[in-house]
Design goal:
The complex is a heterodimer. Chain A contains four helices and no strands. Chain A is mainly α. Chain B starts with 6 loop residues before the first helix and ends in a 10-residue tail after the last helix. Classes of the chains: A mainly alpha, B mainly alpha. Bound molecules: zinc ion.
């Protein structure tokens, strides 16, 4: 009767509990213990796994949309810092 | 700490801030809406940071800089009111000077284009949370510093913002199991 084997409490999360912390989990902001319980659930539960895949896809699409900071801006700011260092803030 | 103008303090300042310039620009772009204003805002932030370096305890330079930027931005908004209080729905951002290359557009052009529209339609508070965390790469804590709100507020805005994006994008095939 393998289905009666109970997991240790933090390992066993319901889909509802996972849904509540899923985005926080994908952002890497959960504590280690909860994160591994969620990760384990995602491996075994197809529905939550798909939900996670959708948010991952969204996050990746957003990261791709983030325009790089123009190199010229960064160069100007670096010289601004160097100038502060050379002359002080006055 | 040593007062500004001192060689050792200057070196410390440079070491602290230079690695953060990219992320500061990304946050400033979200707060100010375009690259030119963002650069001004970062400069002002750097100037204020330089002046107050002796009050900085040396921990979490990014959070320290983000707090300074938030205050600098509030002052700027005050100086430039009312025309700066523009609504992102009616005043689209400048797209010319974003440094984006054609290569960045090949992954999934349909989804990416739809995402721009969906982002533009998002209420500003949600959109900022999404921009700061998913596009500028801030942690919840850092985004809370940048916005001057509690971390829980960042989380709920971010999660609701993503939820809305997701709903809007459902029609364009944003699904975990597209294949
Ligand atoms: Zn589940």
């Amino acid at each position: 009767m393998t289905r009666l084997i109970r997991r240790r409490v933090p390992d066993h999360l319901s889909c509802r509990q996972v849904a509540k912390v899923l985005q926080t989990h994908l952002d890497g902001e959960l504590d280690d213990e909860t994160a591994s319980a969620v990760a384990e659930h995602l491996e075994m539960c197809r529905r939550c796994g798909l939900e996670a895949a959708t948010y991952i896809e969204l996050k990746e699409a957003l990261a791709r949309r983030a325009a790089p900071v123009p190199t010229a801006s960064l160069e100007r700011l670096r010289s601004f810092v160097a100038e502060l260092d050379a002359h002080g803030a006055e | 700490m040593v007062p500004p103008g001192d060689g050792a303090a200057d070196e410390a300042f440079e070491r602290l801030v230079v690695p953060e310039l990219d992320v500061l620009m990304r946050v400033a772009r979200s707060l100010s809406g375009n690259t030119a204003d963002a650069e001004d805002l970062v400069q002002e932030t750097l100037l204020r940071a330089y002046r107050s370096i002796e009050r900085f305890d040396g921990r979490y330079p990014r959070a320290w800089l983000l707090t300074i930027m938030r205050n600098a931005n509030i002052n700027r908004a005050r100086r430039r009111r009312p025309q700066l209080q523009r609504d992102p729905d009616t005043a689209p951002e400048e797209v010319a000077d974003d440094g984006r290359s054609a290569e960045d557009d090949v992954v999934d052009p349909v989804l990416d284009a739809a995402l721009d529209d969906a982002l533009a339609a998002l209420p500003l508070v949600y959109r900022r949370a999404v921009e700061l965390v998913d596009m500028a790469g801030l942690s919840y804590r850092e985004a809370a510093e940048a916005l001057g709100v509690r971390q829980g507020t960042v989380m709920s805005r971010l999660h609701r913002g993503r939820q809305r994006l997701r709903e809007r994008l459902a029609a364009t095939g944003l699904e975990g199991d597209r294949t």
